């Protein structure tokens, strides 16, 4: 076991890596103890992930000069671990058949203007909360009853430490803030057997990650992950939420911003040093 940090880079093979990924990977590697930078392929969304993008991840990271521990974890090899975690959360979970339109209709009824939205979109109004898992249908998602989860843990707030933002204080959300701003999170998506949140938490623990480095866009999701860690009795790592690489218009880079894919810069003759310079490292 390392004395310092074990970190990981966890891309989804749904497109080519761009400058934002290069930054995320290089930050994770810099903050790891030598030899303790890990890679994880987040490929649970089988409809969007492609083997050629997975191959390109390995190639682009190696070109950047990164090396990582073997074997590489792939989420599609880990479905049993997610099923086990879901089974442990079953007493606090319920099936939900609401589609986005249903949720929008319920939320719109009592109010006008902006609807409450959290890291996963609209905050679920709890329509299916009274349903039991025994009548879950094949098209249902599984949600966590967050109020009951806090009560089961005997806590009324949740927090984590990010020393890069606030060195000696936790970032905290109360139970009510969590319910109002995030709501009953999805543990298993339709036809997927898990959700991003559940898989990340189970895998970070399985890989022994002690410092999770990720973009600031995932800051709110970290509260979800800490709650799941507590429910599953998994350790809570330290967190480092880094800045996002933006385009000239100030927009965060997305996979569809193919023009900024690392391999296009590479084809145009850029070196790994050029890439580091471009992202301010
Ligand atoms: N797979 C996630 C992404 O592509 C990042 C993983 C994480 O830090 O939780 O944005």
From TrEMBL:
* Residue ranges the record marks as coiled coil: none
Enzyme Commission number, as recorded: 6.1.1.-
**One MF annotation (Gene Ontology) recorded for this entry:** ligase activity
Q: Which Pfam families match?
A: tRNA-synt_1c
Q: Main EC class of this protein?
A: ligase
| UniProt entry keywords in alphabetical sequence | Aminoacyl-tRNA synthetase, ATP-binding, Ligase, Metal-binding, Nucleotide-binding, Protein biosynthesis, Zinc
- Using the record's annotation, list all stretches that form the Glutamyl/glutaminyl-tRNA synthetase class Ib catalytic domain: 6-105, 179-279
Q: Which InterPro entries match?
A: aa-tRNA-synth_I_CS, Glu/Gln-tRNA-synth, Glu/Gln-tRNA-synth_Ib_cat-dom, GluQ/Sye, Rossmann-like_a/b/a_fold
Which PANTHER family does this one have? GLUTAMATE--TRNA LIGASE (PTHR43311), GLUTAMYL-Q TRNA(ASP) SYNTHETASE (PTHR43311:SF1)
* Family listed: Belongs to the class-I aminoacyl-tRNA synthetase family.
Record-linked NCBIfam families? PRK05710.1-4 (NF004315)
Protein's name in the database: tRNA glutamyl-Q(34) synthetase GluQRS
Which organism does this sequence originate in?
Answer: Paracoccus aerius
